[in-house]
Automatic annotation (TrEMBL):
SUPFAM superfamilies xrefs: Cryptochrome/photolyase FAD-binding domain (SSF48173), Cryptochrome/photolyase, N-terminal domain (SSF52425)
Positions of the Photolyase/cryptochrome alpha/beta domain: 2-131
Cofactor(s) annotated in UniProt: FAD; (6R)-5,10-methylene-5,6,7,8-tetrahydrofolate
Purpose: Involved in repair of UV radiation-induced DNA damage. Catalyzes the light-dependent monomerization (300-600 nm) of cyclobutyl pyrimidine dimers (in cis-syn configuration), which are formed between adjacent bases on the same DNA strand upon exposure to ultraviolet radiation.
Protein name: Deoxyribodipyrimidine photo-lyase
Catalytic activity: cyclobutadipyrimidine (in DNA) = 2 pyrimidine residues (in DNA)
GO biological process: photoreactive repair; response to light stimulus
Cofactor remark from the record: Binds 1 FAD per subunit.
One Pfam assignment: DNA_photolyase
Binding-site list for FAD: Y222, T234, S235, K236, L237, S238, F271, D372, A373, D374
Gene responsible for this protein: phr
Keywords recorded for this protein, A-Z: Chromophore, FAD, Flavoprotein
Species per Swiss-Prot/TrEMBL record: Arenimonas maotaiensis
Amino acid sequence: MANALVWLRRDLRLHDNPALAQAIADGYAPVLVYVHAPEEEGAWAPGAASLAWLHFSLLSLHRDIEARGGRLVIARGASLAELERLQRETRAEALYFGNVYEPLLQARDARVQQAFERSGIAVKRFNASLLVEPWQVQTGSGTPYKVFTPFWRNASAAFSLRAEYPAPSRLPSVEAVGLGIEQLGLLPAIAWHAGFWSHWRPGEEGARELLEAFCEGAVEGYKEQRNLPDRTGTSKLSPHLHFGEISPQQIWRRTATLRLSETGQADLAHFRSELGWREFSYHLIHHFPDSTDHNLNPQFDRFDWAEPDAESLARWQRGRTGIPIVDAGMRELWHTGWMHNRVRMIVASFLCKNLRHHWLHGARWFWDTLLDADLANNSQGWQWTAGTGCDAAPYFRIFNPVSQSEKFDPQARYIKRWVPELQQLPTPLVFAPWQRPELLRHSAPEYPVAPMVDLGESRAAALAAYSRR
């Protein structure tokens, strides 16, 4: 049986993997390959948290492949050179892979395809990580969408729910020179990530467990519960989706089997619309590749952002702003590699509007510390909150962190979990402890006695800057 390379990237799974399934269906013995080439991602090479997840995801995939008699071939270096080497070593007659959509990687993949085809090696590419590929949906005038609602109406009608591609029961053993996963050096020298793994289980099995838990519990009430950071009201599948340990088709297919009440069906529709926002982010990054580093709305190119202040940025990063809900979110991120979505919006609004720092400062920190750091979602999420993107919250929509925490964490359970020094304060005071500085100094002497900026004054300054743009 002839060999074919199956190049894995954002599809680190054996179930519902179209490239792998098609290689087998075409009669090839699949040679499963992962090439680590972070330099090819330019300024947005994976951050420390993502690399740590990748380490354990590859270990999980390696075990799954070995259990079927096969082997995951690990390489490091230029993707084209390593793939060409492996093609020669294995005498592979074809190359199969799932598409990725980051601008630099799309260009890289095109070069790989052209080089292989010039050498007479067949190349087949697949949609392995989206419901609809970014170029499949367009407005009536043939232009990209810039507003979510019509995009999702069109996209959700355009994709078809297919049968799941089966995982192979057996995989062939492969003779090829490869590296051990540890040789990639993915884990940070200082094990600040050690606490992550009590919250997460990278790999296909961990993804399936989370999906089942969501289907059996949190999907009912999702629309409301998703805004409450003190509980697990979301699927928390985002890191698994980013690394392709589960596909959106698998999620859609599983949720389609649920027997829900009328209210539950509305909850499910809302959950699916969040998958739609992921699709929309990839649509935007494909059609507007500069949006990873530049404002989608060019009016903000003249905006009066504050000069970068290393001290204030560090206080925001470490959860020392004196605004409890902001500090809770930033500490949750540091200790778990994840942050609740509602809190992400609050901390981003505080950085971009109360501190008036450019959204890229926040996007860079999230990129390095989020386990689910995803270039499309991260860029568009920050631009949405900053007001600089497509279909964004207007800049003058400034989240009030006090009223947000009162509304969405009314018992202050989330704040007290991540800012434990405030546990002795009466709950109403936890949301704005600077209102009683003497009590704050007595109960929590290590916590800032005042917020780093006055919320009212900084809001007024942000609106004044907006009026001058």
